[in-house]
């Protein structure tokens, strides 16, 4: 006895008749395409066919096979996308990749198998909700490796002004559905010629997806972008240079400080009024065994700010005890006094602190993270003579809320002191630049980033990367930053619209799918 459905929602077959290879290979290929759309590879356009391939492959698959297909796609994306993690521990990296891939697997499980319209509605929604969950859990989430980073180099970057990272994510998967529908239309036309009801369903799906994508892209390009320039701040970001691939315990802090001072020294020889108004140093350039107040380093920084006749913003760490330290950014005015400081809020798990330390101590050596960073509580606004600055320290630039908070509190420029020196490859530095481009765009603010060994960069309020340093070099990156006080749609509304739209689309997709169940039962014939 054999069974065959008399009506099909699309060209795919059920798992009963689909071999493992016909599920695994397209799924892995889809994930690899998503990975290659990200920096450092940067083939942003591959995200759309990769997303479309996964959507097509999910058609007609049973729940456990959809989970399997999604997990394989996740592995295809996150194994290369999170390759940097192997420098910490291979076992931990493997566990991280497997867990991140599971988010994609669960998203695919949440997509109904048919009809096609239901799957077209639910797929972008489920993938967007999965990205939202991935950015928040566990241990504060991990936006690194997200598909939105690849679009920093593409024409849809303006969508971030409306929807931030989740808006870009939704756009990628909507575009993927449209592209896959177009490919399926072409395949049916060649194979069957006849235009049945399924054909028209594909035409409608593809048309709606492309119209939505095009409309969103145009709206993003013309959406409020922070408003007109209030005035210009001349600035310089300092990169001291040095070898990469060494962690903090392997590098003498005095060497890092000396490199930053040496790189900055030429600026002190300029006549008053001819030098920059703002000088930005990287994260963790000054490493103290005690508080900044009254330390020799404070005196050095104060004199340097006065010699520069400029506001000097410096990344500083302070050891508080044998188990705790503080990671902050401090602003010195041209008169040498401290005008503002911000303590990092979003810490790096297993980099700046160890969650559940007593538990993980049984699984590995935690000596590399012997102290936990104390989490800050501020908005990120630094009060300075050149205006209110919005600070995001290193890892925080990947989190949309850490940029949105200071802008909502009045920040008119963005500064990102960071330190990616411990990564030997360019993977994290390039993804961080992409994150800075997304932040600058979604917030409508010019952004200046400084790193000890790169990348140091100047990015406009529309996400244009005007200057980027060379990795490892000693370099000064000058910038003319425009202060702005206007707001974007994303600053005003945040992630709420994308989350609501995604939840409604997912619910609608399942409603359509469940309505079809009785028809599927009546439509089966056996022979």
Level-2 CATH architecture of the largest domain: 4-Layer Sandwich
**Gyration radius, in Å:** 25 Å
Strand content: 5-15%
Report the CATH C-level class of the largest domain: Alpha Beta
Give your account of this protein's structure.
The chain starts with a strand and ends with a strand. Strands 2, 3, 4, 5, 6, 7, 8 and 15 form an eight-stranded mixed sheet that branches. A six-stranded mixed sheet has the order 9-10-11-12-13-14, with helices on one face. α8 (253-268) links the parallel β2 and β3 (278-280). Helix content is 45%, strand content 15%. It has 14 helices and 16 strands. It folds into two domains: 3-224 and 493-526, no CATH class; 231-487, Carbon-nitrogen hydrolase (Nitrilase/N-carbamoyl-D-aminoacid amidohydrolase, 4-Layer Sandwich), CATH 3.60.110. The longest helix has 32 residues, at 160-191. Residues 1-16 and 520-527 have low confidence and may be disordered. The chain is globular and about 80 Å long. α1 packs antiparallel against α2 (47-58), α4 runs antiparallel to α5 (116-134) and α5 (116-134) runs antiparallel to α6 (160-191). With 527 residues, it is an alpha/beta fold.
Quick overview of this protein structure:
This protein is an alpha/beta fold. Helix content is 45%, strand content 15%.
């Amino acid at each position: 006895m054999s069974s065959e459905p008399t009506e099909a929602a699309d060209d795919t077959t059920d798992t009963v008749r689909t071999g493992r290879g016909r599920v695994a290979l397209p799924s892995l290929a889809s994930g690899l395409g998503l990975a290659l759309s990200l920096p450092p590879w940067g083939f942003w356009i591959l995200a759309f066919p990769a997303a479309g391939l996964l959507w097509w492959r999910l058609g007609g698959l049973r729940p456990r096979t959809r989970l399997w297909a999604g997990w394989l796609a996740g592995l295809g994306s996150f194994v290369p996308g999170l390759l940097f993690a192997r420098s910490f521990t291979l076992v931990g990296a493997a566990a991280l990749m497997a867990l991140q891939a599971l988010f994609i697997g669960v998203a695919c499980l949440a997509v109904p198998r048919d009809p096609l319209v239901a799957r077209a509605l639910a797929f972008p929604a489920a993938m967007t909700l999965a990205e939202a969950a991935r950015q928040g859990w566990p241990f504060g989430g991990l936006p690194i490796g997200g598909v939105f980073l690849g679009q920093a180099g593409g024409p849809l970057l303006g969508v971030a002004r409306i929807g931030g990272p989740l808006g870009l994510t939704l756009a990628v998967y909507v575009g993927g559905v449209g592209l896959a529908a177009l490919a399926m239309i072409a395949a049916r036309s060649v194979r069957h010629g006849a235009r049945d009801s399924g054909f028209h369903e594909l035409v409608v799906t593809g048309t709606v997806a492309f119209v939505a994508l095009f409309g969103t892209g145009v709206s993003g390009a013309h959406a409020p972008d922070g408003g007109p320039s209030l005035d210009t701040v001349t600035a310089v970001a300092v990169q001291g240079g040095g070898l990469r691939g060494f962690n903090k315990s392997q590098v003498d802090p005095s060497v890092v400080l000396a490199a930053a001072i040496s790189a900055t020294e030429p600026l002190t020889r300029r006549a008053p009024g001819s030098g920059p108004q703002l000088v930005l140093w990287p994260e963790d350039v000054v490493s103290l065994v005690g508080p900044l107040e009254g330390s020799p380093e404070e005196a050095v920084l104060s004199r340097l700010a006065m010699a520069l006749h400029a506001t000097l913003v410096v990344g500083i760490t302070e050891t508080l005890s044998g188990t705790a330290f503080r990671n902050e950014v401090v602003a010195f005015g041209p008169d040498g006094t401290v005008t503002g400081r911000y303590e990092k809020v979003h810490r790096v798990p297993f980099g700046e602190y160890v969650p559940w330390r007593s538990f993980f101590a049984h699984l590995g050596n935690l000596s590399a993270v012997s102290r936990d960073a104390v989490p800050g509580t501020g908005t990120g606004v630094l009060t300075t003579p050149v205006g209110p600055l919005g600070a995001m320290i290193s890892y925080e630039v990947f989190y949309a809320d850490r940029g949105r908070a200071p802008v909502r509190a009045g920040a008119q420029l963005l500064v990102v002191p960071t330190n990616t020196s411990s990564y030997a490859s360019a993977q994290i530095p390039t993804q961080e630049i992409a994150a800075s481009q997304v932040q600058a765009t979604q917030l409508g603010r010019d952004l200046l980033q400084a790193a000890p060994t790169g990348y140091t960069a100047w990015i406009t309020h529309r996400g244009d990367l005007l200057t980027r340093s060379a990795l490892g070099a000693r370099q000064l990156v000058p910038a003319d930053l425009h202060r702005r006080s206007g707001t974007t749609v994303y600053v005003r509304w945040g992630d709420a619209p994308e989350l609501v739209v995604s939840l409604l689309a997912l619910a609608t997709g399942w409603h359509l799918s469940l309505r079809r169940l009785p028809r599927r039962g009546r439509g089966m014939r056996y022979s």
